[in-house]
């Protein structure tokens, strides 16, 4: 097992990465103060892994309530969030209660948000079971739900007590979910580490096959990169926004197509192709570099062609981006592969990118 530390002063926490972690009681024990833990999961993950986690928690003296949500991005809503509060109140959860998110990014984001809100804030633990949640969403404390008009529009920054990423859970992950997670892995290389991006390029077969050693490296290096960025800027006042590379375009695809039609990672994969195209138009990236990145994204089985939402609609969807200031959207661009830059861009250039990528 590898353990990284996200340094955030009194909100610092460990990120454990390894095999066979789900039933290691010591990993949970030190982060649980009370006697009641509510495990939040979904209908797909519960039959696979809930038993093991519940038994382990009971083994350390916890009373455990399992809260099972419906599965899918379309359920990352107020109505479904309410089911977590119902489960907590019906079981007399108090301020010492711990929430445990067992699942992918949807479960992690919703459970974290519930933990931020319940009695104005209780502790929670992230137990991510998708590649995407292990390399990205379980780390950094962004929690929330979607709004029909915009992705993750309602939420809170609320850091977990610990992240326990059991690589064995990736064995049951469907191929397209694996690819979705690889999009965020590519993102980390593209924005912060050209060497890691080359490693991804060289190891694409192993990554596509979910090879354990390749997964271990992808998860560890991604968590290192994300932790270093978050440690500098917990609440996205500045540098943290680079973790949003590909997301201005990607979130527009997710909201525009209806949540769940495109997986988050697929939308980010395609969004990175568009953001790289824009970086070329602004003069920060060469065409050869953009085309190399696109090839990597394609090789990892991610879509590179956006849906034909129309230019006006696409611009409208992007205008609600959380990085916008005074009505101006700030884009995350690549300043060469392995380095990112945040800046505003003339609408004309953005429209050229949309047209060149066939959004019309
Ligand atoms: N908070 C953040 O920093 C952050 C970062 C990236 C993404 N996100 C959010 O994360 C979400 C996407 O996360 P995701 O890709 O994990 O999607 P997800 O949570 O929908 O999980 C994907 C699918 O895999 C299933 N699943 C989970 N674990 C499994 C396993 N081990 N075996 C088999 N099936 C399994 C789930 O039930 C689901 O059907 C989006 O809502 C996105 O906005 C948040
Ligand atoms: O942690 C971050 O910061 C990120 O931007 C990571 C993204 O991969 C993730 O999708 C995040 O939820 C997007 O944040 P948002 O603030 O644009 O909703
Ligand atoms: Zn993302």
Automatic annotation (TrEMBL):
Binds 1 divalent metal cation per subunit. Can use either Co(2+) or Zn(2+). One of its GO terms (cellular component) is cytoplasm. NAD(+) binds at residues 71-76, 105-109, 129-130, 142, 151, 169-172. Residues 181-324 form the 3-dehydroquinate synthase C-terminal domain. Pathway: Metabolic intermediate biosynthesis; chorismate biosynthesis; chorismate from D-erythrose 4-phosphate and phosphoenolpyruvate: step 2/7. GO terms for molecular function: 3-dehydroquinate synthase activity; metal ion binding; nucleotide binding. Residues 67-179 form the 3-dehydroquinate synthase N-terminal domain. The keyword Cell membrane does not apply. Belongs to the sugar phosphate cyclases superfamily. Dehydroquinate synthase family. Catalyzes the conversion of 3-deoxy-D-arabino-heptulosonate 7-phosphate (DAHP) to dehydroquinate (DHQ). This is 3-dehydroquinate synthase.
